[in-house]
Design goal:
- The chain is an alpha/beta fold.
- Helices cover 29% and strands 27% of the residues.
- Strands 3, 5, 6, 7, 8, 15 and 16 form a seven-stranded mixed β-sheet that branches. It has a six-stranded parallel β-sheet with strand order 11-10-9-12-13-14, with helices on both faces.
- Bound molecules: NADPH dihydro-nicotinamide-adenine-dinucleotide phosphate (NDP).
- GO terms for molecular function: mRNA 3'-UTR AU-rich region binding; NADPH binding; quinone reductase (NADPH) activity; zinc ion binding.
- One of its GO terms (cellular component) is cytosol.
- Residues 18-336 form the Enoyl reductase (ER) domain.
Length: 338
C-alpha cells in the first residue's frame, strides 16, 4: 500500500532545546511507516500550539532527539498500517492529534484520527481540533459550566481563548476576560466575552488584589465560580483572588512561565478546588475522542463557531510562527503548510 509514496519528505526537527534557532527545516526526512493501529496522514495543514514552544525550549522534555514537533494536523489518509481499527480508508479527509506533526507525513494513532464532515474545510479542522477540544473538555470536565455561571478567562483572544469565549457563550455562562490590547479585547468580546479587562499590573504588591476586587464587583459581589487560566505564572495570584467561595481554579498552561509550587493551605480560606488538567489525559480512548470531536464539529456547523485562523505560514517559516506566538503578536490559530 506504500508503493506510490515517496521515501523522503519535508519536516522540521529539533536536535536540542533552545530558541527558534534550533528549529531545523529538512527536505530529506524518512517518510514514516504506519504500524499496527496507525494510519499515515499526508498533512495539508499543521496546527501550531503553545505546547510546541515548551518542547522546543525544554520546559516539557522531548521523548528523544531528533524530534519532530507538533501535536495536530489535517489532511488525507495516504496509507494504513495492518488491520486498521476504524473506517479510515485511504483518501479520507481527517483531523488528528498526536505527535510529530511538523512534516509532510505523520504516522498517527488511528484512535485519535477522525473524519471531517464535508461542510468543514481542512484548514478549519486543523485550526479547531486541539484547541477546540481543549476548551470543550475544560468547560465539561475541569469545571462543568452551568448557565449563569460567572467565569474568568485569561488570554481570551488566543487560540484556546477564542474557543472558550464561544463555547462559554453557548453554555450560557457570563465571561469576564483578559487580553493585552484593545484589539484583542474587542475580538474576545465579539466571540462572546461579556466584560473585558486589562491584565493586573504584574508583580507589584496589591496588583493581584486590585484586579480581583474588580472581578468580584462585576461577578455579583462574590467572584467567579471558575477561572480558566492558560497564562500561568503571571496571573495565578490574581486568579485565586478572583474566585468566590468553593470556586475552581483551572490552571491549564504556562504562556508566561510555569506556576511555582503552591502551598495547598492557600486554598482553605475559600475552600477552593485547584486543577491542572491536560487534554491528552481527558481524551485517552477512542470513545472519548470521538464524542468530543463530533460535538466540536456540530458546534462549528450548526453553532456557526469560528476557527479564527490568524495566519498560515509555509512550513519553512516555522521560526517566524513561534516568534509571533511567543511575542504575543497573534490571535486565534496559527497554521503551517508543508
Ligand atoms: P495562545 O494563542 O493563547 O497564545 C498565548 C497567549 O498568551 C498570547 O497570545 C498572550 O495573549 C498570552 N500571554 C500572556 N502572557 C504571556 C507571556 N508572558 N508570553 C506570551 N504570551 C502571553 O496559545 P494557545 O491557545 O496555544 O495556548 C494557550 C495556553 O493554553 C497555553 O498556556 C497552552 O500551553 C495552554 N494549553 C493547554 C492545554 C492543556 O491540555 N492543558 C492544551 C492547549 C493549550 P495576550 O497578549 O492577550 O496576553
Amino acid at each position: 500500500a506504500m508503493a506510490s509514496l515517496p521515501k523522503t519528505m519535508k519536516g522540521v526537527v529539533i536536535e536540542k532545546t533552545g530558541g527558534t534557532e534550533v528549529l531545523q527545516y529538512k527536505t530529506d526526512l524518512p517518510v514514516p511507516e504506519p504500524k499496527e493501529g496507525e494510519v499515515l496522514v499526508k498533512n495539508e495543514f499543521i496546527g501550531v500550539n503553545y505546547i510546541d514552544t515548551y518542547f522546543r525550549t525544554g520546559l516539557y522534555p522531548a521523548p528523544s532527539f531528533p524530534y519532530i514537533l507538533g501535536r495536530e494536523g489535517s489532511g488525507t489518509i495516504a496509507a494504513t498500517g495492518p488491520n486498521p481499527p476504524h473506517s479510515l480508508a485511504p483518501g479520507t479527509r481527517v483531523a488528528w492529534m498526536g505527535a510529530s506533526a511538523y512534516a509532510e507525513y505523520t504516522a498517527v494513532d488511528a484512535a485519535f484520527c477522525i473524519a471531517i464532515p464535508d461542510s468543514i474545510s481542512l484548514r478549519d479542522a486543523a485550526a479547531a481540533i486541539l484547541q477546540g477540544l481543549t476548551a470543550l473538555t475544560l468547560i465539561r470536565e475541569a469545571h462543568y459550566v452551568s448557565p449563569g455561571d460567572w467565569v474568568l478567562v485569561h488570554a481570551a483572544a488566543g487560540g484556546v481563548g477564542l474557543w472558550l469565549c464561544q463555547l462559554l457563550r453557548a453554555a450560557g455562562a457570563r465571561t469576564i476576560a483578559t487580553a493585552s490590547t484593545a484589539e484583542k479585547r474587542e475580538l474576545a468580546r465579539r466571540h462572546g466575552a461579556e466584560v473585558l479587562l486589562e491584565y493586573h499590573g504584574g508583580e507589584e504588591p496589591g496588583a493581584a488584589e486590585a484586579f480581583a476586587k474588580e472581578v468580584v464587583r462585576i461577578a455579583d459581589g462574590k467572584g467567579v465560580v471558575a477561572v480558566f487560566d492558560g497564562v500561568g505564572k503571571a496571573t495565578f495570584d490574581a486568579s485565586l483572588a478572583s474566585l468566590r467561595s468553593k470556586g475552581t481554579m483551572v490552571s491549564f498552561g504556562n504562556a508566561s512561565g510555569p506556576v511555582p509550587p503552591v502551598a495547598i493551605a492557600r486554598l482553605s480560606p475559600k475552600n477552593l478546588r485547584l486543577m491542572r488538567p491536560t487534554l491528552f489525559s481527558y481524551l485517552t480512548t477512542r470513545e472519548e475522542f470521538e464524542k468530543y470531536a463530533n460535538e466540536l464539529w456540530d458546534f462549528m456547523t450548526k453553532g456557526k463557531m469560528d476557527a479564527n485562523v490568524h495566519d498560515t505560514y509555509p512550513l519553512q517559516d516555522v521560526a517566524r510562527a513561534h516568534q509571533d506566538l511567543e511575542g504575543r503578536k497573534t490571535t486565534g490559530k496559527l497554521l503551517l503548510q508543508p
